[in-house]
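thread: overnight batch results

M.L. [08:02]
morning all. the overnight job finished for the chain we discussed friday. pasting input first so we're all looking at the same thing
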Amino acid sequence: MSGLEIVAFLLGIANVTLVVRRSIWNYPFGLAMVALYGRIFLDARLYSDAILQVFFFVVQLYGWWNWSRNRARSGAVTVVRLDNRDRALWGIGCIVASAAWGYAMHRFTDASFPWADATLAITSVAAQILMSRRAIENWCLWIAVDIGSVGLYAAKGLWLTMLLYAIFLGLAIWGLIDWRKAERQQAAA
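M.L. [08:03]
and the structure it wrote out:
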């Protein structure tokens, strides 16, 4: 456990708590967190996760822009739901992209846990995009990612990061419940 990991851990808790609350202020914390985790994962040879942080940085900027334009009168960000066709396409896309990325990491790098790391990275990409688009389904993907990440980071001895993802799991469950409630309130309004 390093000082860098401790700071990233604290930023991560602040970031996801603010996302759950649909606060646009999650983005400054998220940008700082992913910058730090990029370095942490590179040092741990979790290359898919390290590359993922670059992607997260860019999508955080997009999400900040998108959320700032989609707020209800109360100031809270509005939520949307995917239709069945879109859910299926996102699921198939995750499976195909995970297989391709996992193969590349296994074949061409000395990545640690290339298949699991790739699957978690690709699913995180989908979850982050869906979160930036305000889709409730992002929380289901984050729940799956958080469960898998707890095991991966434990195997790599990244104990504080493992704890962070256990906390993220609880926050993702809270987020799913809260965003569903917000959806019902939007429909009633």
